[in-house]
Every structure is written in C-alpha cells, then in structure tokens.
Specification:
The chain is globular and about 55 Å long. The strands form 5 sheets. An 8-stranded antiparallel beta sheet has the order 13-12-9-10-11-14-19-18, with helices on both faces. Strands 3-2-1-4-5 form a 5-stranded parallel beta sheet, with helices on both faces. The protein has 463 residues and is an alpha+beta fold. The chain binds adenosine-5'-diphosphate (2 copies) and magnesium ion.
Length: 463
C-alpha cells in the first residue's frame, strides 16, 4: 500500500483525497499557493509545503515544484485530483520516471483519451458509437466547412484538448462558421495552449449520461452505473444525479458495456468516466469523451453504490486488484448533487468570489457536504468558483428532491452571491421533477427560473 501521498490540488477535492488517505492510514503532503496558506487542506495534512505564487501556472501547474516537493518529503504516490495536471500525460510520465506513483492511468492512456478527436476514431474501431463528425481534426476553415457540409448543420466546433465546457461553439450554417471557428480556436489556445479543432453533429436536446468505470492493472474493468448531468449552463454541469432516470435496464446494460469497451480501448487503469450523449427519444447514445481522472460529481455514484471511489483509486494505484466484480455492483436509491458556485446567475453566471462572513451547511440523514469553506475564509479569485457540493441520498428520486430542497433552505452563505437560489428553483420546476431535463433545459428556462417569486405557483408539479 502507498505510504505517503502528495496531493497536487486544492479546494474540496484536496480535502476529499486527504480524508480517504487518513482513513487508510496513508500520510498526506499538501501543497499550496501563497493565496491558499489558510486553506483547510493545508491545515489537515500531515505536512504542508508552499509551492509558489497564487497564479496556477506558478504553483499548482508547476510540475518541477510538485515533483521536487514529492521527492523531498518522501512521497511514494501523487494524487492529481481534477483540473490542473490531472489529465496531463507528460506529468504522469514524469512522476513515474521519478519513481512516484501517479494515482491515475498511464501517460500513454491519458494521451489516447486526451485528444477528444483522436479518441473518437479509437472508439469507432472499438465498436463504441460516436456522433457523426469530422473524421479527425479540422485544421482550416475550408476543411471545417466541407466536414460540416458532409455531416449536416447544425454542428458543434470543439477543441480536441477541451475540458470544462471551454473551446466549444455551435454553428447553424456555413455563413456563421468562420467566426465560430475563430472564436472556439482562440478560446482553446488561451485555455489549453492547444487549438486543434474537430467538429461533431449537434445532437438536439440531448441528455448528458456518463458511466463511472474502475479498472485495475490486471485487466479487470467494471462500471459503477451512470449519472445524468444534463442540467448545465454553458456546457458545464450544475446539478447531477444517479442513477439516470431516463435509462431502461436494457439501455443501461448496453451503455455500461460500451463504457467498459471504451475503457479497454485505451488500456485504462484506475477510476475514469465515459461520457455519452443520449438523443431526445432515448434511443441512440454516442460517445463524447473519456475523462481520465476522478470527476467532480463522483459522490453521487458513491452514495448509490456504497463504493468509496478515492479509496479504490488508492488501492488500484498501490497495485491491488479490484475487490469487486460487476455482479457485486448494486445501485441503491437515488442521489442528487448541487454544485454551489460563487457566481451571479442573473449576470451571465459571472464569478463573484469573496470572503465568507457567515456559513451554515445542512446536515442530517442522507446528507453529504463536500466543501473546503469555513466561517471567515476567503474564496480566492484565482481559481475555480465552486464553493461547495451538496449531496443527498434517499430511497426514491422524489424523496431525494425533497431532501435537497430542505438542504438548500437550510444552507446559508453570506459574503458573496451564489447559484443556490437558482438550484432551489430548478428543484421545483415541473420538467426537473418529472426527470425531463435535457442539456437545453437551463438555457431555455433561465428567465423564468431567475424570477424567484414564481416558485410557489409551480410547486405543485410533483405528480
Ligand atoms: P467534471 O468533468 O468532473 O464534471 P468539469 O468539467 O466541471 O468537471 O471540470 C472540473 C474542473 O476541472 C473544473 O475546475 C474545470 O475547469 C477543470 N477542467 C476540466 N477539464 C480541464 C482541462 N482539460 N484543462 C484544464 N482544466 C480542466
Ligand atoms: P468538455 O471536455 O468541455 O467536458 P464535452 O465534449 O464533454 O466537453 O462536452 C461538454 C458538453 O457540451 C456536453 O455535456 C453537452 O452538453 C455538450 N455537447 C458536446 N458535444 C455535443 C454534441 N455533439 N451535441 C450536443 N451537445 C454536445
Ligand atoms: Mg465533458
């Protein structure tokens, strides 16, 4: 078993990893930027080391500093969390070269899955369905135009290196393509330092359904069921749930098997997520991408399966084989997660970080809160605006919805605006209550959802 793990991340995920390590008797080394000196993960780790100034490029993305600290403090493992270096193949390779176990798949696997355009081609070969699209990258406006013509509008221009909803633009016809192409490419360059583009047919009003997979180094691959992450703003998830309500047992079986095939196709090891789009009729599903890391919304899967995914990551990285088979995975009850972000939904979701002047988290049976906030702390403007994840688990979906409403009523955060009230409205919206949200739901309903006085008149939509 690993003995000492460097946590190359911050915020709630650093805390999440730290907690799993402590429960397993693994020591932890926290790293932090100058902006995070008072962060909770720094206070709770066995040992903490400052690795540089606030800017992520100077601290959490500084590979040399991370490896130097890992070696100097005697770490035998490194957990990358999500974001930052978690999907950086060269960093995974560098860790291994230095004799430090990267808690994730190999650099080679990350490379195969990391180019979303190349991954599509690989999946086709593996018999996993993908949306119609450019076969490979589109390097010029002209090639993009002819690929779009072949595929049929509307299309989505997407960055091969994309993540977090960045570098994606919708395009409804040839006249709009040059501008959309230039915009997406510039955003990709700025966000990922890599502006390779590809395109996919836009699936109209789809659902985002993803499968959690676990794989060990002995070739055992299983999935832990699905999550519905269709409630999104700007292609970014806001509310997630497990299991997805729209899947029939047959479709769940077929998609689960496709997820396992996808993981095998890239030689997967550790915990990962295979993302699919499901069309409006719930008939066809398409591979979208594979995320080679722990996912923000992994907690809903943990709640319905009883499996601690970070613990599994640590076991697998330690060289142990999976301690469960597919037949041992049972999905019990229903789980929901609301991401609480420091942002103003009425102002185009503009991030609004600041100091927490008062904080109260909900609790009680079936409630889990993953957050690194505490009374008086500051949510830094330098990083992601996610402030907390509220999770609930109940026997049925409707009970989970009621529990989450109760949690949001209890949740109090003073100091900066959040999307909590918006999420509360969504939990009363008849479409959400019915389980009918597609990825278009939030955009289509935002004006009404932001009219916070409407809720009581719509609260009867529970039938
Ligand atoms: P998930 O895919 O786990 O649901 P998100 O897509 O919201 O979560 O991304 C999780 C975090 O990781 C966010 O902070 C996001 O900005 C960041 N992130 C995701 N992909 C990338 C990437 N390729 N490069 C940089 N940051 C990323
Ligand atoms: P990221 O790497 O940024 O997470 P994804 O490829 O996972 O990018 O896409 C993010 C979101 O964009 C999806 O959850 C979905 O809502 C939307 N999306 C992506 N591809 C398509 C498509 N072909 N048709 C419709 N929506 C799509
Ligand atoms: Mg995605």
């Amino acid at each position: 078993m690993l003995k000492r793990v460097l946590i190359a991340n911050r915020g709630e995920i650093a805390l999440r990893v730290l907690r799993a390590c402590r429960e397993m008797g693994i020591e932890t080394v926290a790293v932090y930027s100058e902006a995070d000196a008072e962060a909770l993960h720094v206070q709770l780790a066995t040992q903490s080391v400052c690795i540089g100034p606030a800017r992520a490029a100077d601290s959490y993305l500084n590979q040399y500093a991370l490896l130097t600290v890992a070696k100097a403090t005697g770490c035998d493992g490194l957990h990358p969390g999500y974001g930052f270096l978690s999907e950086n193949a060269d960093f995974a390779d560098a860790c291994r070269r230095e004799g430090i176990t990267f808690i994730g798949p190999s650099g080679d696997t990350i490379r195969k899955a990391g180019s979303k355009s190349a991954a599509r081609e690989l999946m086709k070969t593996a018999g996993v369905p993908v949306t119609p699209g450019s076969d490979g990258p589109v390097d010029t406006v002209a090639t993009a135009l002819s690929a779009a013509e072949r595929v049929g509008y509307p299309v989505l221009l997407k960055a091969s290196a994309g993540g977090g909803g960045r570098g994606i633009r919708r395009c409804d016809g040839p006249s709009a393509l040059p501008a959309a192409y230039a915009e997406a490419k510039a955003e990709a360059k700025a966000c990922f330092g890599d502006d390779e583009m590809y395109l996919e047919k836009l699936v109209l009003r789809p659902r985002h359904i993803e499968f959690q997979v676990l794989a060990d180094r002995f070739g055992n691959v299983i999935h832990l069921g699905d999550r519905d992450c269709s409630v999104q703003r700007r292609n970014q998830k806001l509310i997630e749930e497990a299991p997805a309500r729209c899947l029939t047992p047959a479709l769940r079986e077929a998609m689960g098997q496709a997820a396992v095939r996808a993981a095998r196709a890239v030689g997967y090891e550790n915990a990962g997520t295979v993302e699919f789009l499901l069309d409006d009729n719930g008939e066809h599903f398409y591979f979208m991408e594979m995320n080679t890391r722990i996912q923000v919304e992994h907690g809903v899967t943990e709640l319905i399966t009883g499996v601690d995914l970070v613990r599994q990551q640590l076991r697998i990285a330690s060289g142990l084989s999976l301690d469960m088979a597919q037949a041992d995975v049972h999905l019990a009850g229903h789980a929901l997660e609301c991401r609480i972000n420091a942002e103003d939904p009425a102002k185009n979701f503009r991030p609004c970080p600041g100091q927490v002047s008062f904080l109260h988290f909900p609790g009680g049976a079936g409630v889990r809160v993953d957050s690194c906030l505490y009374n008086g702390c500051t949510l830094s403007p330098y990083y992601d605006s996610m402030a907390a994840k509220l999770l609930v688990h109940a026997p049925t979906r409707l009970e989970a919805i009621r529990k989450m409403r109760r949690c949001l009523e209890e949740f109090t955060l003073e100091g900066f605006p959040t999307n909590a009230e918006l999420s509360y409205q969504i939990l009363y919206h008849p479409t959400f209550v019915r389980g009918g949200c597609t990825t278009a739901f939030l955009d289509e309903n935002l004006p009404r959802l932001l009219d916070f006085n409407r809720r009581l008149s719509e609260s009867e939509g529970e039938a």
